[in-house]
Amino acid sequence: MILKEARATVALALPIVGTQLAQMAIHTTDVLLLARLSERALAASALAVSIYGFFMVMCMGLAMGTPALAAQALGRDRADREKVRRAVHDGLIVTGIGSAVAMVALWFSGPLLLWSGQAPELVAQTVPFLRILSIGFLSVIWFAVLRGFIAALERPRPAMVLMAIAVLLNAVLNYGLVFGALGLPRLELLGAAIGSSTVNIAILVALGLYIRFDTQFAAYRLAQGWWRSTASRLIHYSRVSAPIALTFGSEVGLFSAAALLMGRLGASEVAAHQVALQWAAITFMVPMGIAQAATVRVGLAAGAHDMAGVRRAGWIAIALGVGFMACAGLMFWLAGGWLIAVFVPSPASPIYALAVAYLSWAALFQVVDGAQAVANGSLRGLHDTTVPMLLAAGGYWLAAFPAAVWLGLFTTWKGEGVWAGLAFGLTLVAVLLVWRFAARSGRRTVLAPAPA
User: pTM of the prediction?
Assistant: First the structure.
C-alpha cells in the first residue's frame, strides 16, 4: 500500500511540479535578462516582484480552495459533477474579487514603496513595471483555478505542457522587448513586464479552450453560468480558501518584507537577495507541487472516510518533500558560487559575494521549508486551514520578522541577519504544522458537507 500510494503521489505531483517550475521559469527568465541589462533594472524588478509576488500568492491561496473542495467531492462520489463544477465556479468568483483588489493595490503601490524607505529613483522604475504586470494578474490566478480543477481529476499534464510552451514564448518575447531584438522595440525593464503579461493572458485562453474541447473536462460544463452562485456557497468556499490565502500571504509577505529591509541596506543587497531568493524559490516549487498532490490524495481519502489512507497519503508526501529539499540544500551548500554565477557572472561584483552568503542561509532552511509546505498541503486536504493559518502567521510575524529586523538592521550581520531570521521562522512553522497534521490524522475526522 505504501509503494502504491507513493507511486500515485509522484505520478500526480510530477506534472504539477513541472507546471510550478515552468511558472517560476517565466520570472527566472526576467531576472536573467534584467541582470544583464543593469544593476538598477535588477533592483527595480526585485522590488516589483516582492510586491507582485505577495498579492499573487495570496490570490493563488484563494484558488487552492478549488482542488481541496473538488477532491473531497470526488472522494465521496466520483459521479458528482455538480459539486466539482460549483467548486470551480466559486473559485473563479472569489479569486476574481480578490484579483480586482490586488490589481488596484499594485497600480497604486508607489506611496507604500516610498513609505518603506526605498530610494525615489528606484520607485520611479518599479511602479510602471508593476502597473504593466497587473494587467495579466487575473489571468495567472484563473489559470491556477482551472489547473486545480484538472489536478483534482488527476490529469494535471495539460497545464504543465501549456506552461512549458509559455516559458519558451516568454523568453523569446521578453528578449526581444528588453534588448530591442527580433524586430521588436527596445523597452528594457517595461519590455519584460509587457512580455510576461501577454504570455499569461495567452495561456489562460489556451487552457480554457483545452478544457472546453476535451471530452472528460467538457462533461463538467464549466462555461455554463460560472458567474452564478449563492451567498452560502461563496462563504463556504471562502472559509476553506481564505485561511490558505492568509497562510501563503504570511510566508510570502515575510519574504517581501525582507526585500524591503534589504532595500534599506542598499541596492546591491536587494539585488543579491533577489538572486539568492530566485534559487530558493525554484527549489520550493517541488514541495509546493507535492503539497498540491497531497491536498488531492488526502482529500480523496478523507472524502471516502478512509483515515488510514489520509495518514498514508500525508506522511508519504511529507517524506517526499523533505527528501527532495535535503538534496537541494546540499546543492546550495556545495555549489552556491556556481549557482549564483548563472545570474551574476562576475565574482568581482558586490552582488555576487552577498548572494553566495545569502544562498548559504537558504541551504540551512531547505528541509524545514519543504516540511511546512507539504504538511500544510496535507492539512488542506482535510479542510483544516484556519489553525494552520494562525500557526504560520504567528511563526512568521511574531518570531521571524522581529528577528530579521533586529539582526539585519541593528547588528553587524546586516543582510545575513535578515536571512537568519527567515530560517528561524521557517523552522518554527515547520515543527508546528507537522505536529498539527500528526494530531489531526491520528483521530477520526468528521468532515462537514458542502452547502447546497
Answer: 0.78
